[in-house]
Amino acid sequence: MADDTDGTTSSSASRRRFLGGALGAVGVVAAGSAGFGVARASEPDASSTSKARPRVPFYAKHQAGIATPAQDRLAFAAFDVTAYDKQSVAVLMGEWAAAAAQMTKGLPIGSIETQPQNPPIDTGEALGLGASNLTVTVGFGPSLFDKRFGLASKKPAALADLPPLPGDQLRKELSGGDLCVQACADDPTVAFHVIRNFARIARGTAVMKWSQLGFGRTASTSIHQPTERNLLGFKDGTKNIKDQDVSDFDDYVWVGDETDQDWMKGGSYLVSRRIAMHIESWDTDYLADQENVIGRKKVSGAPLTGTHEFDAIDFAAKRKNGKPVIEQNAHIRLAAPQFNGGQKILRRGYSYTDGIDPDTGLLDAGLFFIAYQKNPHDQFVRIQRKLGQYDLLNEYIEHTGSALFAVPPGLSEPGDWWGKSILT
Amino acid sequence: MADDTDGTTSSSASRRRFLGGALGAVGVVAAGSAGFGVARASEPDASSTSKARPRVPFYAKHQAGIATPAQDRLAFAAFDVTAYDKQSVAVLMGEWAAAAAQMTKGLPIGSIETQPQNPPIDTGEALGLGASNLTVTVGFGPSLFDKRFGLASKKPAALADLPPLPGDQLRKELSGGDLCVQACADDPTVAFHVIRNFARIARGTAVMKWSQLGFGRTASTSIHQPTERNLLGFKDGTKNIKDQDVSDFDDYVWVGDETDQDWMKGGSYLVSRRIAMHIESWDTDYLADQENVIGRKKVSGAPLTGTHEFDAIDFAAKRKNGKPVIEQNAHIRLAAPQFNGGQKILRRGYSYTDGIDPDTGLLDAGLFFIAYQKNPHDQFVRIQRKLGQYDLLNEYIEHTGSALFAVPPGLSEPGDWWGKSILT
Fold it and tell me: Which of B200, B358, B363 sits opposite A196 (nearest CB)?
């Protein structure tokens, strides 16, 4: 490992080598006064040696994976820190950042072949698959700010635990976490490779609490993407914030001057909800009822008051019998900004299936919902309180997992890492 | 539904309508003397209305999904029949065949919008995604030939249950099944759509026993495909039977005159094995040891006696100390045809991950191995008996699921369905 040869290894890296050297994690820790965080890979650019696939820049004002047009596939994981000191978390963030910088270029985290008597620095399964638009987005859960690491004074008010919400059927083993990583890519192996290597690098410092693969994106975040369908068979995300809505990002997504914690400026808050769909029941429901539940037509995605997907919704329209065309508790009415104090969220969900539910014998499948916003309590919680109570869709869905993470702003340059200003 | 209007509905279809009409399954049952099995969709060709994605012909001498160049994604499911009569199985096969013919063209199974007061005939999530090279491959498990349906005399000798194999750690809930469907496509939603709709159509006749999503193919089956990597980070399938090996298909894959059951001529036998990988342990193993376990170099895939992936393997080569370069129990030596009486199998595996193993807290991930062969007892069992006992890789893997299915030959034309000659 080239990093081992310059003789200026920092004390953090030395400790890390002692704790985790057998894992090869030190290979991504740059030695020297700049601290940890920079891989010095000798591999050539992936685009010259393998399929050229597009890259998303890793160093930027905001973390990639939020405003980035939603990629096709998701691998998501939550971790709990098992170490007892803040410094270990800092080292981990440096190592993860260095690894992410490599992977988002389509490069292995470090050398695979240089030292036969050591474990490879990269697990190898993504070799040759290129960057595939990979983004790696990291966040901090409310529990990271408990007594363990002395971070209580750095906890943003917006990161207060989500309150219990109507209809919640949350399972602890699918909820929460000190840290999260959202890996999105157009190739599922490229996304999984991040989760697996982050878990490997974390060994001794953090353990994976839960993970979720998403096989199909459900919410386009760009006007250049067609709206994809969720497992209800309906287009999902027609009214989502799209990349051209620049002011919406400032108004609803990016944390600004309103924050009580400067380190979060330019960041966002991620809410994930594992929403199981009772698809077998849904599939026996009549088309007209399905469309009334959602408030849109199934095939076209048009509102029931219109003919094309992007037609404005006429919530006041009445049927001949005087009842509203879009029912009072239709999903799109309850979720609409005009009935939620103008609030919006940026959705970025994915369909999932995790085999057969052993309790019911039915397919365990649904939507892994992800939303970004500047304040989850003003935005997601406000909307979900209403949806959880009244949404006609509740007959067919169940929220089984929930998590909240503060997603700090983007990293500025090699050597930067997530939470540097609060962890050092 | 157009099928309801010609007034010649068969008694089978009527019964089916009575039993399952609310599910909309009848929409795919063609009425009339030809029996069930043909959808009469009025939708235009998908390629004219949505993204044009390539199709694999559904009606052919052999079922597609075996010799077809391996697609990127897999959805697989095993079903147990809950009905008590052969006729119900026959109806189900007819309905599945009609549905598969539609989906492999990139079309919905049936009309979604025609009858608002009925459930849609197709669940809708794959609308607009095209055919995506979808193949739907159906098989019959040994248990289908027990006393229930009077099929015992039709059971091929080659379909005898797999014997216990060395090292097996099989879980019943991930093994076996009366029926199977392998859906492969270049889009995961297109593949999942098959499993979900087959389960929907089967309601009242069969229930899903287990299912498995595979996110990345590991065994190329065409010389035009690069060899992909499994989650060990090694290229997998270098020596696989490839599409240009036409004589290998006749010698090893397609059932021929040797069969005791004529209905299986042109078919094949599918063995699936859910192989969990202890990837955390593997990731701490030294590169040199990983390469000795496999017998190949990690990055290039070359045998340890060569320099390029497709170099011939020199099993006799010795090191200076007199020991073989490729160890006696290296994976590629034990699996090589020359040490297994010349036997080969056609592999078609996919990487999977199913979240965190609640027992260990580690990633539940590995290889969903699929192999096709003309006789599983002469081929897979022979090879696995040796691998299960001696393979150096056994330290890092565990077979947790197993199933065997007789895969009948391809369907000849609309109106044909799987097992027609033994179920009528």
Answer: B363
Domain assignment present for residue B146? The answer is: yes
B318 assigned to some structural domain: no
Establish if B22 belongs to a structural domain: yes
Quote the mean pLDDT of chain A: 88
**How high does pLDDT run on average in chain B?**
88
Whole domain around residue A343: which residue ranges?
223-413
Contacts of A99 in chain B (CB under 8 A): none
Alpha-helical segments (H) within A77-186: 86-103
Q: Which amino acid is at A229?
A: R
Q: What ipTM is given for this predicted complex? A: 0.88
Asked whether the beta carbons of B213 and B352 are under 8 A apart, the reply is yes
Instruction: Give me the number of domains chain B comprises.
Output: 1
Examine the pLDDT at B15 and tell me if it is beyond 70.
no
What pLDDT is stored for residue A2 in this prediction? 33
A125/B23 touch (CB, cutoff 8 Å), yes or no:
no
In a domain, B367, yes or no: no
**Cross-chain Cβ contact B287/A120 below 8 Å:** yes
Residue B224, min C-alpha distance to chain A (Å):
14
pLDDT band at B171; cut points 50, 70, 90: very high
Q: Is the pLDDT of residue B335 over 50?
A: yes
The shortest C-alpha distance from A266 to chain B (Å) reads 31
* Residue A311, token pair as written in the block: 């037609």
Q: Check B361 against A207: CB less than 8 A apart.
A: yes
Matching residue, tokens 């992007």: A310
| Yes or no, beta carbons of A22 and B117 under 8 Å apart | no
Which residues of chain B are within 8 Å of residue A356 when distances are taken between CB atoms? 208-211
The Cα of B421 is separated from the nearest Cα of chain A by a number of Å equal to 31
Q: How far is A370 from A354, CA to CA, in rounded Å?
A: 18
CA distance A224 to A357: 37
